[in-house]
Amino acid sequence: MSRRGRRARTGAPTEQRKVDYHNLRNPFPPMNAFSEDRIEALHQASLTVLEEIGIKVLLPEARALFKSGGARVDDEMVFIGRDMVEAAVASAPKTIPIRGAVRARGITLELGNLVFQPGAGAPHATDLERGRRPGSLSDFREMVQLTQHFDVLQMVPPLVEAQDIPVHLRHYAMTQTVLTQSDKVPFIYSRGTPQVLDGFEMIRDFRGISDDEFHATPHCYTIINTNSPRVIDMPMAQGLIDFARAGQVSIITPFTLMGAMAPITVAGAMTLSHAEALAAITLTQLAKSGAPTCYGTFTSNVDMKSGAPAFGTPAHFTASLVAGQLARRLGLPWRCAGGSAANINDAQAANESQFGLWGCLMAGASVVIHSAGWLEGGLTVSYEKIITDLEVLQMVAELCAGTPATDADIALDALREVQPSGHFFGASHTMERYQTQFYEPLVGDWSNFGTWTERGAVDADNRATGIWRNIVDNFEAPSHDPDRIDGLRDFIARRTEQGGAAPES
């Protein structure tokens, strides 16, 4: 069933418009924050960090790979030469196709393409009906259904942690939910090789493909966060190696907060972020040349009074622009992020999310994560905020879809038809197009105050509750082979009986 085009305020799709929100190209020219010579200076400074100051790598296998590639290793410190980094960047693919469960859900990560994900990795969920609470499998399931419903969200991240499931079994329940409730590109946690291999096997068998087919083309992705400043820990290093060798996508994302885990200046923070990303990219290419790897950053500032992270700030916006310049310097697809530090879905939350989003758009990000639903700097994903943020994402998608200016669109006939001081409501040109011309808002209400109050004066937050509730209550999962669903259950039952797979620390 189509999830495109105009939607009623209940969230139910109508068929008047056929706009593809799943395959988006960024229509905006990228904006620069620094001059090109300063970007080159920053890049060279990052190479100096890796070559002379070094990065701490906790996994022995990763240190051995770096050493075999020519790096100097001193205990846990690794010193990576410029030539190694340049060779790794050259071998990393500049275009990365990732397959969904069906062909129409596949995406391509490359410069110029635009992919959105909702908020991810939060320990808490919240909505107006049930309040703020630790994330559960039920919350995760409902949020996956919301992600599946909207074409403008093309990847399914780990929206909230299913904390009611033991950690050694959690990856089974969450992966099963994504595979059965969605047909979009799935996420797999990097929490040690046993859990990663479980995830790969579940996807391979559920999609009915061979090992060779799975390894030949990416079918899933993970997020790899370095431990700033200058540490690649054991699970993240192992994840880089495991995903590279399996031909699956690592989205490498240093989390550098200015004044906390990074220098307080944008240039200093981005030098560190860039160095850490380059080190991780190099490790993937040492594990397997040509491994699909996405450059990334998540750089913002902190509130220096409290130490709390802040998002949607001028520093956050500027750091995104710099990251875009560095990604274009490398030629790699890259990941940026929106988000909000607001505690509830209020005006602060909207302003921070939109300012962060526009930073990603102006920077030319290939993947924008945390684009819908994120609150409290990542501690919570809000159902209502998912919906109100989707209002903005679908407006952006309309801009990406493009509006042709045909001779008919120029509307000379309408201009001849309507007399001075007349109106165009009843013009033939208008009547032929009014059902298909405009995007209809999800939660916005453009009626005047009197009409709004007559209709019950429901604000956007409460209207969003009705929308997400209607989608979840009436959700129909994609059609999947029942035998493969049974096979997935059997696999989970067998691995559970064997003790599951505890994450590696």
TrEMBL record:
<dbReference type="GO" id="GO:0008168">
    <property type="term" value="F:methyltransferase activity"/>
</dbReference>
<comment type="similarity">
    <text>Belongs to the trimethylamine methyltransferase family.</text>
</comment>
<dbReference type="Pfam" id="PF06253">
    <property type="entry name" value="MTTB"/>
</dbReference>
<dbReference type="GO" id="GO:0032259">
    <property type="term" value="P:methylation"/>
</dbReference>
<dbReference type="InterPro" id="IPR010426">
    <property type="entry name" value="MTTB_MeTrfase"/>
</dbReference>
<keyword id="KW-0808">Transferase</keyword>
<keyword id="KW-0489">Methyltransferase</keyword>
<dbReference type="InterPro" id="IPR038601">
    <property type="entry name" value="MttB-like_sf"/>
</dbReference>
<protein>
    <recommendedName>
        <fullName>Methyltransferase</fullName>
        <ecNumber>2.1.1.-</ecNumber>
    </recommendedName>
</protein>
